[in-house]
Structure formats: C-alpha cells, structure tokens
Write a structure and sequence with these properties.
145 residues, mainly beta, four-stranded antiparallel β-sheet
Length: 145
C-alpha cells in the first residue's frame, strides 16, 4: 500500500538479484487504507507479465504493453496462463465463482456455490481449479484450446 492506495506494482529483474524500479499495474487506483485480504494473480510467459486483480468491486486483467480492462465484478481473484500464455481468470461473487477464459467475450459461471478459487497450470497446458463450497473442496480441469 502506498499512501493509502491499494494498487499493485511489479519490479523486473534479469538476473534474480537486481531489480528495477517497481511500476504500477493498471491505470486506475483504489483508495483503501486497509487490506481487504484479497490478492490477485501474476504470471510470466516469455518475459511478458500478465496480472489479474481486484480494484474495489471490479476485477481487472492487464498484460505488458496493454491497458488494464475490466473482466468482471467480484473479489478473491486468481489467474493462471495456458501453455500459449493466454490468461484464465477466476473470482468469487455472492453467487459462486465466475471465470473468464481466453477468447471469450463474457464471464461464465464455474461453480455455484463456491469461493476462494486457486488455479494451477498443468504440464499439458490445461488449468486445474480448486475452490471451497462451504462444506467441501471441489476441483475441475479446464481445457482451453
């Protein structure tokens, strides 16, 4: 948090020891002098950083050299990249979990009920999702072509 704003920053390193100046991700900002216990997701493919995060009640996605764009409304954001470097973004809503898959115009419902999703890219390029339902842990493999 910088001066009461909850914005994400990223710093780059070419050797893992020395880092450049941190750069703010996205164009907007969120004045919130607290931590809502809500991270986001960052991933790198071929040196290109892709980030997904929450700003107030909106979910944003950003890639190097591109402006951030709203992909949905919710909280507790997770992201993974397919083998081709395309982002899969998922987040929690009051009704369950929404997902934004590569090359889709709108979010889809992944699970109802559900929350606190985590994502992992599998060796075959698909994405493994795991989330809480309140009484159990559910999982699903998402194949994106």
């Amino acid at each position: 948090m910088v001066e009461g704003y909850r914005d994400l920053y990223a710093a780059r390193s070419s050797d893992g020891l020395h880092f450049g100046k941190a750069q703010k991700l996205g164009a907007g900002t969120w004045k919130l002098n607290a931590c809502p216990m809500d991270g986001g997701g960052q991933a790198v493919n071929d040196g290109k950083l892709t980030s997904a995060w929450r700003r107030d009640s909106d979910v944003f996605l950003s890639a190097d050299g591109e402006p951030d764009r709203k992909v949905g409304t919710g909280r507790v954001v997770a992201q993974a990249l397919t083998r081709q470097g395309r982002p899969v973004v998922e987040w929690t809503t009051d009704g369950g979990i929404q997902a934004r898959l590569p090359r889709t115009a709108a979010a889809i419902e992944l699970a109802k009920p559900g929350g606190f999703v985590n994502l992992l890219t599998l060796p075959n390029g698909s994405v493994f999702a795991a989330w809480e339902t309140g009484t159990a842990i559910e999982t699903k493999v998402i194949t994106v072509r």
